Amino acid sequence: MRIGAHVRQDADPIGRGEDLGADIVQLFLSDPQKWQTPGEHPQTERILASDIDVVVHSPYVINVASLNNRIRMPSRKAVAEHAEAAARIGAIGLVVHGGHVRDGESIAAGIENWRKLFERRDDKGGFPVPILVENTAGGDLAMARYVDTIGRLWDAIGDHGAGFCLDTCHAWAAGEDLVDIVERVRSVTGRIDLVHLNNSRDEFGSARDRHANLTDGRIDPALLVSVAEAAGAPVVLETPADGIADDLDYLREHLPR
């Protein structure tokens, strides 16, 4: 099982991964809070030559589900641009949050917007890297907060090659029981391609997305290990930076390798 961590955008991702003894690193290719087109990564050759896998996280501003044209249209463009930039550095996928619609709007319409994203790219040969839809922590009108809604989303996009990223803090915050979360997610998606293994600073069902280090949060760390083991997918930690090395040591000690 490959394990690693999210690294700072302005850092040397491979160098940081080597320092941590990581098998995989996750990074942003632009400011996650802005609409920016990613350019060529200054360390592309080093990344491509490394044995460390790379996954790219898309900006938080993206909301493919939105019914607002001024959000949805740039979101579609941004997913395509970041997927192309991710492919240039040999990334194994692009993580994209499920997004949401607003009060009074239909979840079904948001799901339809996700379907259109994939269908329009199918006409161009698809995306150059897998799009990994990530579950989210809050919002009753979110596309990927609850497992049953994820199932509805997958009915629309599953046949288009979409992948799934399971975030444990998000599932906990959403009020989804982690004991059988892997089984329930797989029952509707058929797959889990990446795990964001994060503890939570907040109580179960809080809808708050505040990550904690593996042994410092509200979730039993043994339960987090069991989720990672059951998923059998690459694991990326998005925990506070000052404890990531200890988190990786904890996983190396408790996960079968």
CATH topology: TIM Barrel
Instruction: Label the structural class.
Output: alpha/beta
> Helix fraction?
25-40%
Structural domain count? 1
CA-based gyration radius:
17 Å
Strand content: 5-15%
Work out the helix count: 9
Strand order of the largest sheet: 1-2-3-4-5-6-7-10
What's the number of extended β-strand segments?
Answer: 10
Level-1 CATH class name: Alpha Beta
Q: Which CATH architecture is right?
A: Alpha-Beta Barrel
Oligomer: single chain
3D shape: globular
Verbal overview:
The chain is of the alpha/beta class. The chain has one domain: TIM Barrel (Alpha-Beta Barrel). The protein is built from 9 helices and 10 strands. Helix 5 packs parallel to helix 7. The radius of gyration is 17 Å and the shape is globular.
